Amino acid sequence: MLERAKKLSDELVRLRRDVHQHPELGFREFRTARLVAETLQEIGGFEIKTGVGHTGVVGEIGDGDGPTIAIRADMDALPIKEQNDAPYRSQNEGVMHACGHDAHTAMLLGAAHLLRRCYEEERWQGRVRLLFQPSEEMFNEDGISGATAMIEEGALEGVDAVIALHVDSTEKAGRFLFHDGRALAAVDSFEAWLYASGGHGAAPHRGADPLFMLGPVLNAIYAIPSRRINPIYPCVVSLGEVSGGSASNVIPCEVYIQGTLRSYHPEVREQLWEEVERALALSKTLGGDYKLSIQKGYPPMHNDARVNNWMRDVVGDLAGSDHVVEDESAMGAEDFAYMTELAPGAMVSLGAAVDDGVRRAHHTPIFDIDESVLPLGAAVLAETARRYVVDGLSL
Q1: What whole-number distance in Å separates Cα of residue 315 and Cα of residue 321?
Q2: Could you say which of 152, 160, 309, 323 would form a disulfide bridge with 67 (CB–CB 3.0 to 4.6 Å)?
C-alpha cells in the first residue's frame, strides 16, 4: 500500500498545493468541495454526495452487506495572512491553511485512489465512507460546526468505526503519535463586559471605574485552575482579549474581555462556568456590574484504544515500529470529538515538521509542512480501512 501511495506523490503534492493556494473559511469551502467531488468522480467507483452539512462531500465505496468505516478530513482554513514566500502561498488575502487541513484533504483523496484499486482487486463485503468535512475551526451563527452539520444530515448513519489523521507541524516528519482515551479537551469560550458609571480622569472619586474593577476580576479568573478546581483534574483558563477606554483622561463605562475554557471532565467543565461568573461578580462589590456570555464548544475527544491499536499495527507494518510514538493528552480541541461520541474512533497525529530549523506552529502565519509525509498518511488511512472491511477487525 505504501509503495502504491508513493507513486501518487506528485498528485498528492499538487492537490495539497491547489487547496493551500485557494483557502476558504468554514462553510464557504465551495471551490475546495468542487475539487474534491471532481477528483472523486475522476477516480471512479465512489457514490458521491455533495452539499452535506452545507459544503461537505461524502464519497463511499464497497458493498453494503458488511461493516462500514468512515475516514474524516477537514477542509476549512483560518483568517490568517500568510507570510511564507512559497510558490504555493495563499492567493486569498487574509485567509490561510495554517492548520494542515489542505494536507488532510489531499491525503484522503490519495486514500480514495488507493481504495478504489483495492476494491477492484478484492471486492470486499463492507463499505468505506470518506467524509470531507467543512468548518472544523468555527461554529456558524447557530452554534453548529462542520462535524455536527454533517452528522445532522446523516453522514455517520450506519458507521461502525471512524478514523482521522491530523498533521503536526512541530513533530518530526513521519512519526505517528498515539494516545488512548481522552486525547483532547472540551472547549468553551466566554465573553464578558464590566460596567460602571465612568467619569472624568481628573475626578475618579466621583464615578466608578471598570478598569479598576478589572484588576481583582482578572486575578480571580486566573486563580480558578490553581485555587478553585481540584488539582487532580486538568483545566485551562486563558484570556485572549481585554479592551476598554478610548482616551487618557476618560474613565470608560465599559471593559470587554474574552477567553477560552478547557477541561476533560463534565463536572469541571460546569464548575469553570460557575467560577468565571463568581470572579466577574466581584465587580458588583466595587460598585459596578457585569454581563457574561458562554458559548459551549466541542466535547472532549476520546480515542478508542482498539481503533488506535489497528492503526498502530498498520503504521508498524508500513513504516516500522520506530514510527509509532506514544503521546500525551493535550488541551487542544477538535470537533471530530462529536463523531467519536457516535462511533468508536480515533484521531492520530502525523509528524510533518519542515526540517529548516524554524518552528512553524499551527495557527501561525508561517505554518507549513513537509509534503513528503502525504503518501504515508494516505497509505495508513487506506490500509486501516481496507483491513477493517477485508479482515473484519473486531470491536
Answers
A1: 7
A2: 160
Nearest alpha-carbon partner for 256 in 193, 196, 197? 193
Return d(Cα 264, Cα 182) in angstroms, integer. 7
3-state secondary structure of 291: strand
Structural contact between residues 351 and 327, judged by C-beta atoms closer than 8 angstroms? no
Enter the C-alpha cell of residue 374.
502525504
C-alpha to C-alpha distance for 104 and 75, rounded to whole angstroms? 8
| Residue 263 β-bridge partners | 186, 235
Examine the residue annotation and report whether 119 is marked as an active-site residue of this protein: no
Each residue's pLDDT tens digit, 332-374: 999 999 999 999 999 999 999 999 999 999 999 999 999 999 9
pTM, 2 dp: 0.95
Q: How many CA atoms lie within 13 A of 144 on its CB side?
A: 14
Among the options 29, 371, 383, 388, which is catalytic?
371
Distances from the Cα of 232 to the Cα of 11, 12, 174, 328, 333, angstroms: 48, 44, 34, 16, 20
298 is catalytic: yes
CA distance 224 to 132: 38
* Annotated catalytic residue within 298, 334, 338, 383: 298
